[in-house]
Write a structure and sequence with these properties.
Blueprint: E1 3-5, H1 7-23, H2 25-40, E2 50-51, E3 60-65, E4 68-74, E5 78-85
Helix pairs in contact: 1-2
Length: 100
């Protein structure tokens, strides 16, 4: 299945990597690789994610990676909507304002 990463999700990833890079360039590089591997795995197994507990919609799912929630919409393709730190309140995520 086709996987697209939305511009807001790419911004999320950039911000996460920039933050981690401040502490460790090596950890930032490893996390970058892990995020994109996790996203790529959705090409083969798009339904592997679980429903987002804060939402009632069946088409919005998430996969977890460390402290991050990779939230995506599943229909004819996988659209990565946001990469969100699990400690933060999802209802405050501006990338999901049209969904929440």
């Amino acid at each position: 299945m086709e996987v697209e990463i939305t511009a807001p999700a790419l911004d999320d990833i950039k911000n996460i990597i920039d933050y981690v890079h401040q502490q460790s360039a090596q950890n930032a590089q490893a996390l970058y690789k892990e995020i994109f591997q996790k996203i790529a795995s959705l090409q083969t197994f798009p339904e592997r994610g679980q429903r987002v507990r804060e939402l009632v919609r069946q088409d919005i799912r998430e996969i977890k990676l460390f402290h991050y929630r990779i939230i995506y919409k599943l229909n004819r393709k996988v659209s990565i909507l946001t990469v969100h730190h699990a400690a933060r309140l999802l209802l405050n995520n501006p990338n999901l304002k049209d969904i929440l």
